[in-house]
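#struct-queue
[09:14] JT: dropping the first one here, sequence first, then the structure tokens:
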Amino acid sequence: MISASTEIRVRYAETDAMGIAYHGNYLPWFEVARVVLLDKIGLSYKKLEDDGFLLPVLEANLRYLAPARFDDILTVTVRMEELPRVRIRMDYTVHKEGSLLTTGHTLHAFMNRAGQAIKPPAIVQERFISVFNEK
């Protein structure tokens, strides 16, 4: 398993009329954590895209347990439990001061710019194997 965490501060614009973080904002927060995880293991999301490799979301699932509100400092953690092959599953938790607010996951696959599913590039496979073997 590999993981990474990042802090997010809920902005006023991310809240609804009830003062609660709008549910649609969690997916961008998950994306921030994903980029942090890839950076942590030495894979730049930007470089992958520049090289023509895309990682679209195939599936997203979120479960809201408690609300986040304006100015809350959230810790978004992303985990990869299994060595990815063609598809990559990432699991997320969102905490505020140790309390679990949200859980979720996303499922991704590598695609080329023509929208065709492809195998992950060799550098990606090698990096994931290396990182998972370190654990």
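[09:21] JT: and here's the second one, same format:
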Amino acid sequence: MGMNETPGAERVHIGFFGKRNAGKSSVMNKVTGQDLAVVSDVKGTTTDPVYKSMELLPLGPVVMMDTPGIDDEGELGSLRVKKSYQVLNKTDVAVLVLDGKAGMSREDRMLLERIRKKNIPRILVLNKRDTLTEKEVGETLAGLPEGYQEGRDFLWVSAREGTGIHELKERLAALGSAGENQRKLLGDLLSPGDLVVLVVPVDKAAPKGRLILPQQQTIRDILDAGAVSVVIKEDRVKETLESLGKKPRLVITDSQVFERVSKDTPEEIPLTSFSILFARYKGNLETAAEGARALEKLKDGDKILISEGCTHHRQCGDIGTEKLPAWIRKYTGRKLEFSFTSGTQFPDELEEYSLIVHCGGCMLGEREMKYRLSCARDQGVPMTNYGILIAYMNGILERSLGWDGYFLQQ
């Protein structure tokens, strides 16, 4: 990601769905004005989801997602269909593209019902209008769900001629804006002039020459609030706090040095972590805090899933695959088994796990993070995140959430 690009998790994710040869890719290409997806008369040209970050006026930064046909056949075809349905988990606005002449099929209705149940803003696009007679138009309209209104619930377009595309872009902008996340990462906790100290370890896992995304986003939110940030390494906490002219409003630390920073930060100064702030931002703070307490119920042989939303090269001392398992085994004294996932990988079946430990989710959209939480909740598996679990194991969870549950009340 470039320094001036909006993080993917903060972009509106627009998914294009439909049967093979309904014109999903063609419609998406017309909307974007770019040949993002391969177009062909051969059924099943799109075999894997296609993602493209871009600016879509008048909406702004988006991720456009083209998907395999929901009527694909055979063993490979069923896997592609499954991938299409999985894309729904990260979709903020769904575009269901139909062949205007063929009308609405059983597969289209099933997908539309899934979209509705997930409460995803949606628009039905009837493609190939230029090829239809008025009689065929009437027959297609008669097969739509009862009460559907043109302009609000569905639109006629022709990807070949470009008609209706402007109206579709305007509708996407309206649907995308309606679902924008209005929460702040921490700006609502700050006043202009407040001082915030950020503790950023620089070890082997730190990217060379730059800060990682959660740190960048936190600094930007502090700037937007008119506050002041001071960025230091973990070995300068005590010295820095003593030299400042006033008490910081907040100290925010990387989770892996939580214990050390807590010892060097006076009790009267609020302390939390980047991971905890992101749990608050994604709306899963209370659930994650409760999930950490599941450590006390673990038994020998229990399985723990550690999941990260991003993909990166694992290095010696990696927090997810090395440090966390070691800390959990030491805290519980149990012989435990660990599984690891990263990126878009997240199991549908979770019942074999006694606990899920997730990263802060800075690379995941709010909808996908909530989907993962709901999967865990529905299957009765407690779920927490890195920062909250580390704070709990170090006996500083209550402090890191703020006195009297300060952050929980925001």
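[09:30] RK: nice, looked through the second one.
[09:31] RK: The chain has a mean pLDDT of 86.
[09:31] JT: good to know. The chain has three domains: 8-178, 187-277, 287-393.
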